[in-house]
Amino acid sequence: MQRARESIARIVRSARPACLLAWRLVSTLPTVAVSALGVALIALAGRDVFDALFHPEGKGTLGRLIMRTVWAAFRRLARGRRGAFALAGPTALLVVISSWAALLILGWALIFWPHIGRELHALTAVHPGTFVEALHTSLVTITTLGFADVIPHAGWLRVVAPLEALLGFGLLSASISWLLLIYPAISRRRSLAYEVSLLVEAEGQTGVALEQLEPASAAGIYAELTSRLVAVERDLVSFPISYYFAELDERFALAALAPRLHELAERGSRTDMPESARLRAWMLLEALRDFSATTAERFHRRPGHSTTEALEAYAHDHMWPG
């Protein structure tokens, strides 16, 4: 009997480390899974911010998905209330920035969550050990307010947690920079549209067509329109959000006036035109072809079979007759 008891005791002692290791493994797996999800959300936000601000040729999947969703929602709303359509761009801008902040806050909260009450101690915890405390810690940290009543005890948390404050400050600075860069791009597009509108109106009022001017004058106008259109096309590539800022006044809506600009370029590129004016008009046609391809490929996804059809699809997407 004594030998049997000793055998059982040895088995228990030998099994204890294995049981302890298994328990630790089971308790660690949820922590690793939650932390990995948090890191993935932070990486998703970082990739989207990077593509929006520094790499416009990148996918920026989340931001562009949000922009298109908001745009589609406002297009439906504008069928009954045209004035609401002008809010699509500003709303999309706010939603994109808010989504970046939400992803960062949620991601860091998931990282903090398994350590609340152990490595992260709250002096006045209202919901001790819960996700609410983790979310509170993430919010006060990303807004650079500090940890407030939460004290990190683990060394790695003391090093990692301040990174959230750094990311929060970076997100604020990036958002302000984005705003400051977007509106000049929108102004350049509006001013080009207004110039085309004035040119079309002047032709109607005076009865003098652009191609009837002196070759040097016509070539100068075509050259100016081309350079400004190229700048607008590059703005759309660099700041895709600017596409979703719609105009209610047709005089400032390039989507409404682009087909008219194409007509002006086609008239100037006829074979009976002087060479200098015809060359500049042909350059404007090529710029319009590139512009229509950019808007079709990146935004409304209806390229058509010609530049005319693509420009009409662009106008239709902005709810203007082609």
Itemize the secondary structure elements and their pairings:
Blueprint: H1 2-53, H2 61-78, H3 88-112, E1 120-122, H4 131-142, E2 150-152, H5 155-206, H6 215-238, H7 254-268, H8 275-300, H9 307-317
Antiparallel strand pairs: 1-2
Helix pairs in contact: 1-3, 2-3, 3-4, 3-5, 5-6, 5-7, 6-8, 7-8, 7-9, 8-9
Description of the molecule:
The chain is mainly α and 322 residues long. It folds into two domains: 31-174, no CATH class; 181-317. The protein is 73% helix and 2% strand. It has nine helices and two strands; from the N terminus they run αααβαβααααα. The protein has a two-stranded antiparallel sheet. Helix 5 crosses helix 7. The radius of gyration is 30 Å and the shape is elongated. The model is unreliable at 15-26 (pLDDT under 50).
Q: Give the beta-strand count.
A: 2
Helix content: over 70%
Mean pLDDT across every amino acid position = 83
Describe the global form: elongated
* Biggest beta sheet summary: 2 strands, antiparallel
Order of helices and strands: HHHEHEHHHHH
Query: What Rg, in angstroms, do the CA atoms define?
Result: 30 Å
Instruction: Supply the number of structural domains.
Output: 2
